[in-house]
Amino acid sequence: MFTHPTILSLMTQQNPPARRARERILDAAAEVMRRDGLVHATTKQIAREAECSEALLYKHFPDKRDIFLSVLAERSTGLGLPAEMAGTSTVRKNLVELTERSIVFYQENFPMAASIFGSTDLLTSHRNAMQQRGVGPHAVSAAVEQYLLEEAHLGRVDAAAVDAESVARLLTGGALHEAFLATYASESVEDPRRVAQRLVDSVNLGEITD
After folding, report:
1. How far is 87 from 25, CA to CA, in rounded Å?
2. Which pLDDT tens digit goes with each residue over 112-169?
3. Deepest of 6, 47, 87, 203, by most Cβ within 10 A of its Cβ?
């Protein structure tokens, strides 16, 4: 469900009118997909809301999945570059920041992606397409795990005491759960920062030497 900007870079060199058309398409796609879900969003509907033809849409994006990935990368709250946070601020503050961004990301995009789980065939097709592109829902926890490994390398996290993969999955899993509950209730996560702080405080980070 998540495509990290460092994994996916779909921005291309285009002349200004073409760039404006692409931006309109992405804006419309984000609106339609979050409102109607990925399964029910059609390229015809996206093109209509972007006030362009389907032919123009396909000049910028080969298929709906590529539009979906571009919305995730360019119209969503991302994690930024977690590995580059290593050695800055404190480990706890950085993890709170990453967890908060994860909550917001999942809340923005859960309604968009949830519809693919309604059909085994659709889910299989979507999963295969994502694997071919080298992306998928693992990217969020993988990015947080990489951050923790970088901190361990710098000596700011006790590598012997901290299971980076488990901590990353617990934090991003908690973020996804909060987003699911809010989406189910047709609400927004109340105070994502405070929720992120509680999640981070609940995991074992070993001896942090920052």
Report:
1. 39
2. 888 888 888 878 888 888 788 787 888 899 999 999 999 999 999 998 889 999 999 9
3. 47
Measure the CA–CA gap between 210 and 207, rounded to whole angstroms: 9
* Residue type at position 192: P
Nearest to 57 by CA among 22, 103, 5: 22
Amino acid making up residue 57: L
For the record, the structure tokens of 186 come out as: 């047709």
Stronger pLDDT, 3 or 194, i.e. the higher one: 194
Structural tokens at position 169? 């999955």
8 Å CB contact between 70 and 5: no
Cα-to-chain-centroid distance, residue 201? 23
pLDDT value at 13 more than 50: no
Structural domains for the chain: 16-74 (1.10.10.60), 82-201 (no CATH)
Cβ atoms within 10 Å of 210's Cβ, excluding its own: 15
Its pTM stands at: 0.78
The answer to whether 206 touches 199, Cβ cutoff 8 Å, is no
Burial of residue 202 (CB within 10 Å: 0-12, 13-18, 19+) is exposed
Comparing CA positions, the residue from 99, 134, 93, 130 lying closest to residue 1 is 130
